[in-house]
């Protein structure tokens, strides 16, 4: 069973100055997160990160999506979530790969394409992608704040109206586990296993969780793959992590996905059907 890294403090009692917002309770009426009543402004992310750091709180944008489902409508299950540190990222990804690639049906087209250099149905797990050869141009938290600011500033985008939230977590990768987020439930019932992968992406690619929706996630990437070979290796991890990104979204091909959605991309988006 998971234990929250620290309880969510009462913002008023802690002296944290926040815009109007709401606390979202878990199954035992313990507060899991705070989120604002209104859309985020471009400066909210760095300001709240600085303010919340002393209380062990990390920022994340939350979105209601097309169905207007905000965190109080999410099925948050922290008591059913394990601890991310108890899982090995490569073992988790290899297991997903076995489930979704090794057993893929060539005739139906399920699974990534066998054309080109990308692993195809029936292929063995290729292993973790290497750390990109190039150095990060900016601090990972600066990149995350930049992405959050762009999202907040673009009121006409599909994420327009995203709101700031604060979650008690020690590292960005653990945010989904800290609240027992169930967005990937059709793929994985214990989100801590996915958080183990997010931890690995933090270490290798300077990734940060920036947006959570009912069944969607966006992460910033401070050190994205800079060569097509690096991108193809990481695309295999993306497929194991979130098969719907390739199986149910154009271009339906792992090589094309690597070039379009991974190579030099400072934001990765995931959604689970």
Summarize the structure in words:
The radius of gyration is 18 Å and the shape is globular. Strand 1 and strand 2 form a beta hairpin. Helix content is 32%, strand content 15%. A seven-stranded mixed beta sheet has the order 1-2-4-3-5-6-7. About 5% of the residues have low confidence. The longest helix is centred in the last third of the chain and has 15 residues. By secondary structure, the chain is of the alpha+beta class. It has nine helices and seven strands.
Write the topology of this structure:
Blueprint: H1 11-14, E1 21-25, E2 31-36, H2 44-52, E3 57-62, H3 89-102, H4 140-153, E4 163-168, H5 175-179, H6 191-205, E5 207-212, E6 216-221, H7 228-241, H8 244-247, H9 254-262, E7 267-271
Parallel strand pairs: 3-5
Antiparallel strand pairs: 1-2, 2-4, 3-4, 5-6, 6-7
Helix pairs in contact: 3-6, 3-7, 7-9
In a few lines, what is going on in this structure?
With 273 residues, this protein is an alpha+beta fold. The protein has helices at 11-14, 44-52, 89-102, 140-153, 175-179, 191-205, 228-241, 244-247, 254-262, and strands at 21-25, 31-36, 57-62, 163-168, 207-212, 216-221, 267-271. It contains 9 helices and 7 strands.
Keywords:
273 residues, alpha+beta, seven-stranded mixed β-sheet, 7 strands, globular
**Number of helical runs?**
9
Main pleated-sheet profile: 7 strands, mixed
Q: Which consecutive residue ranges, at least 5 long each, have pLDDT under 50?
A: 105-118
What's the end-to-end separation, in Å? 26 Å
Radius of gyration: 18 Å
Percentage of β-strand residues: 5-15%
**Order of adjacent strands in the largest pleated sheet:** 1-2-4-3-5-6-7
User: In terms of structural class, how would the helical and strand content be classed?
Assistant: alpha+beta
Would you list the SSEs in sequence order as H and E?
HEEHEHHEHHEEHHHE
Give the total of beta strands. Answer: 7
Described by the principal axes of the CA atoms, the overall outline is globular
Mean pLDDT: 88
């Amino acid at each position: 069973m998971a234990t929250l890294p620290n309880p969510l403090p009462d913002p008023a009692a802690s002296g944290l100055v926040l815009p109007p917002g709401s606390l979202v309770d878990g199954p035992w009426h313990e507060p899991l997160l705070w989120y604002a009543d209104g859309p985020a402004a471009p400066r909210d992310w760095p300001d709240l990160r600085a303010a919340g750091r002393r209380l062990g709180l990390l920022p994340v944008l939350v979105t209601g999506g097309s169905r207007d489902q905000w965190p109080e409508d999410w099925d948050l299950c922290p008591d059913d979530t394990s601890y991310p540190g108890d899982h090995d990222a490569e073992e988790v990804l290899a297991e997903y790969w076995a489930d979704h690639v090794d057993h893929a049906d060539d005739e139906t087209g399920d699974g990534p394409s066998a054309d080109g250099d990308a692993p195809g149905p029936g292929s063995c797990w290729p292993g973790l992608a290497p750390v990109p050869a190039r150095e990060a141009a900016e601090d990972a938290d600066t990149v995350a704040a930049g992405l959050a600011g762009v999202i907040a500033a673009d009121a006409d985008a599909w994420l327009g109206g995203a709101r700031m939230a604060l979650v008690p977590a020690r590292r960005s990768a653990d945010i989904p586990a800290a609240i027992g987020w169930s967005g990937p439930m059709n793929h994985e019932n214990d989100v801590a296993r996915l958080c183990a992968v997010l931890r690995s992406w933090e270490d290798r690619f300077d990734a940060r969780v920036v947006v959570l929706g009912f069944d969607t996630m966006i992460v910033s990437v401070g050190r994205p793959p800079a060569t097509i070979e690096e991108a193809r290796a990481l695309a295999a991890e993306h497929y194991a992590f979130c098969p719907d990104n390739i199986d149910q979204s154009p271009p339906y091909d792992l090589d094309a996905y690597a070039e379009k959605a991974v190579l030099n991309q400072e934001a990765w988006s995931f959604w689970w059907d």
